[in-house]
What does this fold into?
Amino acid sequence: MTSTKDFCVALKEKGFDFYTGVPCSILKGVINYLSEDLDLPYIPATREDEAIGIATGAYLAGKKPVVLMQNSGMGNSIGTLASLVLLYEIPLLLLISWRGFQGRDAPEHILMGKSTLKLLVEIGVPARVLPKEKEKAEETLLEAVKIINERSLPTAIIIRRGVIE
Amino acid sequence: MRRYEAIEEITKELKGDELVISANGKISRELFSIRDSACNFYMLGSMGLASSIGFGLSLSLPYKRVVVLDGDGNLLMNLGSLATIGHFAPSNLLHFLLDNEMHASTGGQRTVSSKVRLEEIARAVGYKTVKKVSSVQELRTVVSEILGSDSEREGPSFVLAKIESGEREVPRVSHEPQFIKKRFLTNLSNFTVTQLTTPNRLTNDRAGKFVVLKSVNFHPARIYLQRLHLVTKLD
Ligand SMILES: Cc1ncc(C[n+]2csc(CCOP(=O)(O)OP(=O)(O)O)c2C)c(N)n1
Ligand SMILES: [Mg+2]
It folds into this structure.
């Protein structure tokens, strides 16, 4: 398990300086922490695709943005990922919570839970599940940062309940 | 007023260093054929998000003017964006709505903007300057008032321009998406620190947060670093 604070500090240290998204209970701690950080903007968007648009604008302005969302919201955003983020190669870090993981969740999350990783892979967004062990989680973040910095591509980190507390 | 006349009128008044984000479909195509520029970001897909991209830019570059050329179909698809913009109210954002009450790009299917007063929504969410025009002359007056270098008008501004139906032949944007992005970024990275003016005020009810932002994140030294960052990334 990674603490909310360690995770957010790591994001800042890696140079991520613009945050936007739509909340999910799994990401509650992270979003609350970022919202209270006076050095950073956290922009609450009305929809996940709007958040991706805002983050794209921030990237064009020289920022290093992160978009936080629930996997249901990733479903809302497939078209935007395809026709904006992947089309122009906008290197966004997507932090996506994984509701419906292993089919144990509220009914509205089951189907998307089953398809989350497959959908990302299918459209070509490199995606990794954040491991429970702190050291491994750090490695995962480093790999994502590498994709963003060196290949200028978007990448997703999938976050299960309890992995960041 | 035709769509291309409106875009001509707006681009004529630009100094040249404003960042312009155009909505998808014919709006981007018209802008491309009227004034192609490194300052233009033609949004080819992601219908509805031009205002969000413009908003993200305007927040992050408060010393730059950001112009959004939006369509009624586009705006109605992402109406929440108006609320977000109204809340954070970046004063350097100029939002033009080219309202022909239809999806002209796909054959003229009607939208609901013939009855829905989008300018009232803009006013209600907190845009500081809101104008509605329906002729080239009116647009010219408003544009020079808002875009003119000595403009006292406070942003964000929303200008709804009623557009007549009728399309002319207009070629597709012939640049590759990646070229559009790289050219836009390179142009911004060449922008020198000496051109910086005082950051615009960011007003919202979380003002405390943005006061800090202004003095820390938008410090000229920091912007200079940001510029270097862009240069290294592109070289
Ligand atoms: C998500 C999505 N839905 C539909 C389309 C098809 N489409 C392209 S442009 C357009 C209409 C845009 O209308 P508006 O913003 O009013 O601009 P206009 O063409 O009227 O100037 C539509 C529906 C699309 N590109 N993307
Ligand atoms: Mg229209």
